[in-house]
Amino acid sequence: APLNPIVKPLEWMLGSWECDEPGEGTFPTIQPFQYTEMLHIFHVGQPMLNFMFNAFHSETKKPLHRECGFIRVEPGKDKVAFIIAQNTGLVEIEEGKLSGQELTLQSQSVSRISFAKQPHVQQISRTFRLKEDGRLEQMVCMATESQPLSEHLHITYRKTAP
Fold it and tell me: What's the helix, strand, coil split of the chain in %, to 5?
């Protein structure tokens, strides 16, 4: 299906992406860790993009975090929304601004299953940036009930398929 013109400003995100080097995970309440991740951002002709993010432990290859959802653009504006479901039982809506080939998002709504692990996530911010060398960078910050907004994840991907 042809790309819907509404999501044309996000065309730079489309494709399959994998990290060359492990990403870094940090947070004040956990030991630092490394992870690998694969992203699949695609469309089916609708006025949105679909995505799947799959993270793995860098040494054991054990599946870790998984996210899937949709990326919406407000027609004629630079406002973008991510609708995300995570395997941890978290569901969130992040909204933000597109500026060229950089997308900055802040959580607007965070919900969770009743038996989600504590401390509960309260806020997430995320930035995607297409670097000059064609690699995609993602940075995620997180706040919980007991910790203020702090850097949590940082990773860079190379495109493996259009």
Answer: 5, 65, 30
Name the burial class of residue 32, with classes exposed (0-12), middle (13-18) and buried (19+) by CB atoms within 10 angstroms of its CB: exposed
User: What one-character DSSP code corresponds to residue 62?
Assistant: -
Quote the percentage of the chain above a pLDDT of 70: 100
For residues 48 and 43, what is the distance between their CA atoms, to the nearest angstrom?
Answer: 7
Contact 40, 57 (CB under 8 A): no
* CA distances, 15 to each of 28, 93, 124, 146 (Å): 33, 22, 24, 37
Question: Is-above-0.85 flag for pTM?
Answer: yes
Quote the pLDDT of residue 39. 98
Tell the residue number behind the tokens 């290859």, with chain if given: 61
Smallest Cα–Cα separation from 153: which of 86, 80, 98?
Answer: 86
Give 72's pLDDT tier (boundaries 50, 70, 90).
Answer: very high
